[in-house]
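The pair is quoted verbatim below.
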Amino acid sequence: MAAWREPVTIDSYLPERPDRYPAYLDRRVYQGSSGRVYPLPFHDRISPVAVAHEWDAVHLENRWVRLMVLPELGGRIHVGHDRSAGHDFFYRNRVIKPALVGLAGPWIAGGVEFNWPQHHRPATFLPTDVEIEREPDGAVTVWCSDHDPFARMKGMHGIRLRPDRATVEVRARLYNRSETTQTFLWWANVAARVHDDYQSFFPRDVRVVADHAKRAVTAFPAADCPYYGIDYAARHEHGGDRLDWYRNIPVPTSYMCSSREGFFGGYDHAARAGFVHVADPHTAVGKKQWTWGNSPFGHAWDRNLGDDGAAYVELMAGVFTDNQPDFAFIAPGETKVFSQFWYPIQEIGPVHAATVDAAVRVDVEPGAVLVGLAVTAERPGCRILLEDDRGAVLAEVAADAAPGAPHRTRIAADVPDRLLLRVLHGDAELVAWDSHVPAAPDVAPATEPPAPPDVESTEELALIGTHLEQYRHATRSPEPYWREALRRDPGHVASSVGLAGRAYRRAEYAEAEALLTRAVDRSTTWNAHPADTTALYLSGLVLERRGRPGEAYARFAAASWARAWRAPAGYRMARIDAAAGRDADALHRLADVRRVEPEHLQARALTALLLRRTGRAAEAAELLRDTLALDPLDWWSRDLAGLPLTTDAQTCLDVALEYAASARPGRRCACSTSPRNAKRIARPGRPRPAH
C-alpha cells in the first residue's frame, strides 16, 4: 500500500479570465433547476491552445488498484486503474480540456466528479483543501473539502483505499454550517470510456427509466416508446432498442432509474473488464446514465472534451436523490454521512447481484447453471450453494477467488422454478442471487402544477410552493402560491413561513418579521408550545439581524422545545450568551446542542473557545483533537488548534465571522485574520503546503 503527494504535469486548456462584471443569470435553467452563479464569476471562454500545466495530485496504490486524485479540480478522481487487467475502469482523460458545461462555465470529462449541493458541482473547477489520513490498519483516506460558494455549507469527501481490498470507498461528510435549512443533492459522476462493445448494467428490477425531472419515461432495457425523439421500438429487430448499449443511442440522452438493490456498473466486452458500484439502496437510490450520443454530433462533443478520440458515458450514483433535479433537506448543524464503493471486475460480464464483498453473474441453462464470481479481497475456500425456495441445497462447489482472479464454473443441477444462489466464505455470506425478480418500483411522469388560482386547497398551494423552493425551480417562483394561500387564509402558517424565509434571505427583515409574527400568533393560538416551532426559530434569526438579541433569545428558547430545532436554536442562544460574556450559560447550551448533534462542528469549536476562555485549556485541547479526528479540515477547529490556515480567503472570512459572533463587547476577537496570526495564513497565489 502506497500513498504520496506529487504534482503531475498535464496538457491543459485553461479558462480565460472571466468578465469583470458579475453574471446573475437568475432565471437560467441548469440541470432542471436554478442556474444562478453569483457570487461566482462566470467563465465564458476557454483557451484554444493547450499548455503544460502542473496540477497538485495525490496518488494511492495497492496490489490491485491505482488512483490519482486532483484536489485543485474539485477533488475529483482523475485515474482509476485496474492493475490486474491493465485496464482503466474509469475513463482517463489525457488532457484537461474544459468545455462550458458547468454551472459556472468550465467542466471537464473523465474520472469521477463529486457533485453537491447541486449538479454539476458549483466548485467543480475550483480547488479543495486536502488532507491525507493514514489509519492503523494501513488504509489511507485522501480528504478533500471546501465551503460551498453559495450557502457556505461544508462538503467533504474522503477517497479511501485499503491494503487488503480492491474497493475504492468514497466517504462523504456533508455539513450545513449555515443558520437555515438548505437543500442539496449528491451525485458521484463516473466516466467510462465506451465503444460499440460497452454495456451498462443495472439491477434486474429496473424495468422503467426516466428523463430529467421525470418528464418522460420508457421501458428498460428495451425502450418501448419514443425517447428523446428516437423511435426505439422501430429499431427492435436488430436490437437497436436496447438502452444499455452505448452503440444504440444516437442523440444526447439521460436516463435515471430506481431499484430495490444497491448496485450497478459498466462492462467493456472487448477488454473483458469493467466496474461495479455498490451503496446502501435505502439512501443511495440514484442511478443514471448520460451520453452525448453515438453520432457525429456526440463525437464532436467528445472531441470538444478530449484529444484522444475516445467516447465516454457517465454512470452516476446519487445519494439522497433519485433524479436531477431531486433535492433533499439538511438542517442547520446537521451532518449527512455515507459511503459509496466502486471496484473493478474482470472476465465475468455484467453482473446480476453485488455487495461490497463480491459480485456474481448467473446464467441458467437446461440442466446447468453458469456462475461467474468476482471478489474484492482474497477469498480462498469459498462455497457456492444452489438452493430451492425452501432452502434445500441442490448443489455445492468450492471456489478460490481473489481480486483480479475471478472464479467461473458450470454447475450441473436440475433447476427448479425458483433458484437461489449463495456464496459463502466461512460463515459469512458474500453475495446472494435469486431467480425471482421483485416488482419494479413505480415511476410516473412528472406533471406541471396548475396556476395558483386553479389550485383547490390552501394546503396544496403551500405544498406546491415548498416543492418549487426545494427543487430550486429556475422559472417558477413559489411566492405566488404562498400569496394565494394567504389571500384565502391570511394566517396560514406554512405559507407565511415560506414567504418569510425568502424575505430573510433577501435581507427584507421588516417583511419577514411581519409574516413570522402572524405565523407565531396562529401556531400558538391553541398551544403555547406548538409541535412545529419553525416560525419561532426563523423569528429569532430575523430579530438577531435587526439588532434585538434579547427578543431573539426568547424566540430561540421557545423554538428549542421542539426536537427539530433544539440544536439549531440552542446554538444561536449559545452565541448570544458568549457575545454577552455569559460563558457558563453558553457552555451549558452547547452541551445540550452536542447531545442532539454530536458532530455539530461549530458547537464543538465554540465549546473549545469558551473552555479556553474560562481557563480549561486542557479540556479545550482534548475536544479539538477529537474534532479534528472527526473532520481534519474543519478550519475553525484547526485555527483554534494553532494549525496553518492553508484554505482560501473566503473560508478564512467564514472563520473570522464565527469568532466575531462570539466576541465579548469591547473585546477584540482572536481570529485567524488578526495580525498576530497572519503568518499562519497561506499567501494568495502560493501553492498550499502539504498537511
In short: The mean pLDDT is 94. The chain is about 25% helix and 30% strand.
